[in-house]
């Protein structure tokens, strides 16, 4: 079976699964495709992993696909029980809880991904892993993304006006930003797409980090044991042979 068909079948099974009699946990995620991790139609590795968690714990996840900043705001307001996939930033502790509490437990991550520098083809912008060179304008990144803190620490001009990776790439091609900091998975997708011939991805990542399911403060207060079981099940499912086989099929390397 072609893997895209497999994801469609997975999405259909998620959508049609009966939650009758099962404890429900509401989760939000960003309203865009971030391959191979997730799609708006509930495909990708994140949903495969969470499906395994549902089966292990006999619970039901109720998903909401919404813009990222709104997702984080709903998490902070306890309007949802959790959000994924979220990288660590100290100020995000106000929004919800990471596995491990004060000592973040990276073993309970959903996945690892990176941010890379993308430049317009022919540009002289360079990144050596420590600093930028030949930068003649702002570096763009997506609204609310954690890489903004890394860029600001470099004391470079930034542009946070884009919601989506393809929108940011078009801004880069139009010369409205000098470079773009884009999630590694998004960047690889752009390079394979119609905009790819006009772009170049630099080889050294800006940063590599784990991404988590973080749970609301309300969820932790009301159902602390379930929260811990969910995080533990994520670790177990991610390390399972079945999930590793799915990762290998998508070309994910560690």
From TrEMBL:
Instruction: Give UniProt keywords alphabetically.
Output: Signal
Q: Which Pfam families match?
A: SBP_bac_3
| Region forming the signal peptide | 1-19
Q: InterPro entries per the record? A: Solute-binding_3/MltF_N
Where is each Solute-binding protein family 3/N-terminal domain found?
24-254
Query: In terms of domain of life, where is this protein from?
Result: Bacteria
Q: What is this protein called?
A: Transporter substrate-binding domain-containing protein
- Species annotation: Rugamonas rivuli
């Amino acid at each position: 079976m072609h893997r895209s068909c497999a994801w469609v079948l997975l999405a259909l099974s998620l959508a049609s699964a009966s939650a009758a009699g099962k404890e429900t946990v509401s989760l939000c995620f960003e309203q865009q495709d971030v391959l191979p991790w997730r799609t708006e139609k509930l495909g990708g590795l994140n949903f495969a992993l969470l499906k395994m968690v549902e089966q292990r714990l006999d619970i039901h996840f109720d998903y909401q696909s919404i813009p990222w900043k709104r997702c984080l705001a709903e998490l902070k307001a306890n309007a949802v029980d959790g959000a994924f996939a979220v990288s660590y930033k100290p100020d995000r502790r106000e929004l919800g809880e990471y596995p491990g509490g004060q000592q973040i437990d990276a073993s309970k991550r959903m996945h690892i991904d990176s941010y890379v520098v993308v430049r317009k083809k022919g540009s002289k912008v360079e990144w050596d892993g420590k600093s930028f060179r030949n930068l003649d304008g702002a570096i763009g990144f997506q609204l609310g993304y954690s890489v903004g803190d890394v860029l600001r620490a470099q004391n470079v001009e930034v542009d946070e006006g884009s919601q989506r990776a393809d929108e940011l790439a078009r801004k880069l091609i139009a010369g409205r930003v000098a470079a773009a900091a884009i999630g590694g998975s998004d960047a690889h997708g752009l390079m394979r797409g119609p905009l790819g011939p006009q772009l170049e991805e630099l080889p050294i990542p800006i940063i590599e980090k784990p991404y988590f399911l973080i749970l609301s403060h309300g969820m932790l207060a009301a159902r602390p044991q379930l929260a811990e079981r969910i995080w533990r099940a994520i670790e177990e499912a991610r390390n399972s042979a079945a999930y590793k086989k799915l990762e290998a099929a998508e070309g994910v390397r560690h």
